[in-house]
Amino acid sequence: MSPCLHPRVPLCCHPRCPLVLPSPCPLVLPFPLSPCRHPRVPSRCHPLLLPTPLFPLPPLTPPLLPVSPPLSPCPRPAMAPLADLYQVSMAYGHWRAGRHRAPAAAELFFRRPPFRGSFALGAGLAEGLRGLRAFRFSAADVAYLRSVLPSTIDDAFFDYLATLDASEVTVTAIPEGSVVFARVPFLQVKGPLLVVQLLETTLLCLVNYASLVATNAARFRLLAGPDVKLIEMGLRCAQGPDGALSASRYSYIGGFDCTSNILAGKLYGIPVRGTIAHSFIMSFRSLEEVQARLPPRAGGDPVDLAGLAVSWLQRVCDLLRTPPGKANQGELAAFVSYAVTFPCDFQGLLDTYCGLEIMLDPPWICVPVVINAFPARARSGLPNFCAVALALHQLGYQAIGVRLDSGDLAQQSKEIRGVFQACGAHFQVPWFGTIPIAVSNNISEQSLEEFGREGSEIDMIGIGTNLVTCPLQPSLGCVYKLVEVNGSPCLKLTEDEEKMTIPGMKTIYRLYDAAGHPFMDLMALEEEPSPSAGQELGIRVLGRLGETTKVIPTTVELLHRTYFRDGQVCEPLPSLPEVRTHAQVSLNLLSPAHRRLHEPQPYPVCPALPTSHWHTPGNATGFGGLSKATTELLPDPSCSHSQVAVTERLHQLFQELSQGSH
């Protein structure tokens, strides 16, 4: 790897890839740098950068680059080595047997819904397509494989690996950001058997965590509601720089509004936000350390903001009935310094110092109850912030918010809102009562549930560890299973019924009820006729194979689209904000029973029964058409001419295995 020839766009050509630059380059970045011959074409190299952010945040500098749906033509590192070693070992087995070009198909799905819910958000499709475009073994990759594989491997196999790409691969998928359910294929991959096999680990790596963190973010969004702003701030606790960038990107898809991660903002165009840390406030001791002259916003001679803040502190403390001498002077100096530096974006962190007593009567504070040792009205930061914010207001500026990072956040937010409203009314500053209140401090799903139960005045929530590390479920558990080789369906048969696979390439339909809610996903063979709205369908739900049900959908949606063919992306890729919007629409379409986070109603996924069970004439055999292939895999004369659905056959095989008959 060599440094980019254009240092102002060093990341323009490269997908996210967890590599570290070698010496002598002084930087350590989470992706490689290579020469770029397009110094002024960042839009060609950034396939998924965004247009103007959806939210009214300060403009980013430099301006965001435009969206470019086609994948970049710039050189990319070979992605084929992003695989487990046994994939290459099996590839050699296929090559040696002369089966490497046999047509094959595989499906990527998860077996159980994450977080004990009913759904997941499918994510990582765009990066998966980038991986397909970059799928190849470089000369250095082939040389390395020679060094780690057995010396008995034929040299011609390595020559063959050097020619591999994904030009014969076809990928169909559910659009990124869609709600996906257990057992339903998110991706379907067709191509030569050897290549389909080699793609397994790469695609799982690019989809598994992406979908997990997007789903986790969606759960936080559902708990927070549509009006509270959510900021992802997990960079420092993520699993390395690669995990941090993925978390920023996919939590945005899941419904977060912004990120604290500067690099993620630069690469993906996600709005970037930040507040102020305790260390900044702790670094000040007195107002003598501050250069505090600030001109009024309307123009004029600079004013001593520190002196103005001291005078306002006296007035605020009189209102709050607390001695101004108990407010921490170093904290006041820090606030003044920050306000002079960012007069239009002043914000305060209120809980660095505690111990102040405030005696403010109702109705301004409706619930003046001490919840912990240091309630909000005992924070030195509260009168100090009010004093500096009012001083700024006198000069024509407006503070943008405060943050709390400890204690009972819901209760403190209500107390702080009361103080803001009291100051706004007393000093005739109407906007003061609506100053946004942000909170952080190891926020979890439980925290948001408590905010909802207790009520709060919280406007923004910063979430880090419990978002990016997904502690409630560290992996989505996606699997990639072969379902067809040489036109014949194939399956995995095991005593663990959950791990059985459903053979054959399938077409996936989503059925909607009259209220517009999806109520079932239907899997049918590719050659079968499509179900239609108003048609009565016979189905059996996975997990309840002995029960036959008839349903009549109001609307039928074909879920999969073809995204990759002949080595190229053949479907325009949406921008990140468009994926985010699609995800929120998909979530909102779910019925409350399926969308709730605790003990949701299971979402049914059903293979189609033979079309004789449908009230539309047809000669197709439904999933019973797989019975012959199933019989070839596990001989059973009683099934050789039946039109039984494949789920019924799998259920029968499982029962036989459980009883020891095989």
Automatic annotation (TrEMBL):
GO terms (BP aspect): NAD+ biosynthetic process via the salvage pathway
Domain of life: Eukaryota
Keyword Phosphoprotein: yes
InterPro entries, sorted: Aldolase_TIM, NAPRTase_C, NAPRTase_N, Nic_PRibTrfase-Fam, Nicotinate_pribotase-like_C
Catalytic activity: 5-phospho-alpha-D-ribose 1-diphosphate + nicotinate + ATP + H2O = nicotinate beta-D-ribonucleotide + ADP + phosphate + diphosphate
Enzyme class: ligase
Name of protein: nicotinate phosphoribosyltransferase
Lineage, top ranks: Eukaryota, Metazoa, Chordata, Craniata, Vertebrata
